[in-house]
Amino acid sequence: TTYGHETPCRTCAFSYDGHMVLYSTDEAMGRPCELFVVDIRSRPEEGPAKRINVTSRQKHKKVTSCLWGTLDDFVVTGHENGELVQWDFRTGEETRAEHPHTLQIMDLQTNKDLTFIVSASKDCTAKLFDLETLTHVKTYETERPVNSAAISPTKDHVVLGGGQEAIEVTQTSAQTGKFEARFFHLIFEEEFARVKGHFGPINSLAFHPDGKSYASGGEDGFVRLQYFDVDYLEYDLTY
């Protein structure tokens, strides 16, 4: 099935029930940034189940990341100006809006039970929020742009990845670019480990559902699968 548009499609996400797809298009060629919800059980010519014009009233900037909320009741979008917005996709109206970042939100991911989301931003931070209320809970600070962040399904850990833009580090070493994946404690906000390997910025991160490994995709053209050692898997902090 193909859904055609005149402007680039920036983000997409399957609903929890697997029947709907949420995606966004860019603001370009005189057309606004829009959110679309389509039912994959319907034919493309029937049109989207819902269409939301995000930038029509100049209230919001372009959508750069998106995901579904708890039990598909709402959707959440991250924007190029650092905004975080919650939408009731049935009515097409926003229900909550926050501005937690000063620069573009690059990635949004939920934890295993869909109670929290973690955002990754070019402002060199990742932040944890309550998914339903968008209440800011924790902040993970670095000295580089953060392109992706993921929450472990088995431990109170979050991994961050990013680095300087490739064009800025062409003539410098990997150490200067700071391309390691960085692990923070979800609750205490403290960094406890770094994993090297990429020689370009990390663009995407994801934990395996069993929590025993994670994958990172980099600007260097490699996807690296990292398996945790026994010490990491057996370590348990009491608090």
Structure description:
This is Serine-threonine kinase receptor-associated protein. InterPro entries: eIF3i, Quinoprotein_ADH-like_sf, WD40/YVTN_repeat-like_dom_sf, WD40_rpt. It comes from Didymodactylos carnosus. Belongs to the WD repeat STRAP family. With about 240 residues, the chain is mainly beta. The chain has two domains: about 1-100, Beta Barrel (Lipocalin), CATH 2.40.128; about 105-239, YVTN repeat-like/Quinoprotein amine dehydrogenase (Methylamine Dehydrogenase, Chain H, 7 Propeller), CATH 2.130.10. The protein has helices at about 175, 230-235, and strands at about 10-15, 20-25, 35-40, 50-55, 65-70, 75-80, 85-90, 95-100, 105-110, 115-120, 125-130, 135-140, 145-150, 155-160, 180-185, 190-195, 200-205, 215-220, 225. The chain has a four-stranded antiparallel β-sheet, with no helix packed on it. Strands 5-6-7-8 form a four-stranded antiparallel β-sheet, with no helix packed on it. It has a four-stranded antiparallel β-sheet with strand order 9-10-11-12, with no helix packed on it. A hairpin with a 4-residue loop joins strand 7 and strand 8. The longest helix is centred in the C-terminal third of the chain and has 5 residues, at about 230-235.
